[in-house]
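Long-time lurker. I teach an intro course on protein structure, and each term I like to show students one example going from raw sequence to a predicted 3D structure in token notation. This year I'd like something fresh instead of my usual example. Would anyone be willing to generate the tokens for the chain below so I can use it in lecture? Attribution to the forum is fine with me.
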Amino acid sequence: MNIEEQIKTLEELAAVDAELKILDDQIALERGTLSTLKASLKEHADKLATDQAHATKLDKSRGDLLNEARTMMQQLDHSREKLNRSRNERESNAAQRELEELRKLVRDREDEIGKLTTDIDAARLGNEATEGTIKTISDELGGKEGDITASLSKVEKERGERAGARANIAKKLPPVIFRRYELIRSKRGTGIAQTTDGTCKACNMALPPQLFHRLRRDPVLEQCPSCNRLIYFQPSQVATTST
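-- Reply from a regular --
Happy to contribute to a lecture. Here you go:
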């Protein structure tokens, strides 16, 4: 394979690589959309499960306090009976102190129950909002997943075909040239460039005059001193945009 054929083959390879890059970006975008929606759905589902467990715990705590308050109310009734049955001042004072202590405990429990009720109501509203968000995300995912999956299947099939074409093109190149191209492409995104006026069309840097004259004089592949891409001379009247 002469230099002209190598250049032509490298340009074909670069064109396929550009197509593959577009397909890879499309695949990544489609997968990213699905991944983002699924991750968001899981995040909100996990949050809902945690918040529901917390609300259940709050509700249980309120139930326990209500039971305690009912027991204390019964004790209050019993203390009132004791006060009414008091036979002397000593018994009356003791019963009165017991009543006051029980009333304070009941007030404390009622305050705690009130705070828990407020927290439970807030938790319920938060859970309803989270459930609404989950439904919105689920509806969006359900509406998009089928189309995205179908699109992915089509794009991945096309990518496989282009990758096969690339492999066939690469086989035509001398291994040393292909390896050099791949090394440059892995670092620069593209592996080949043109020059028509002494400027590398890939990095827009001026080539040394001696190098440019050599490229103009003979069909030859060199490397741009600035970006290291494989570079060749293309007459301006048929110059194309470098891939």
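Some talking points for your students: The mean pLDDT is 92. Residues 89-172 form the longest helix (84 residues).
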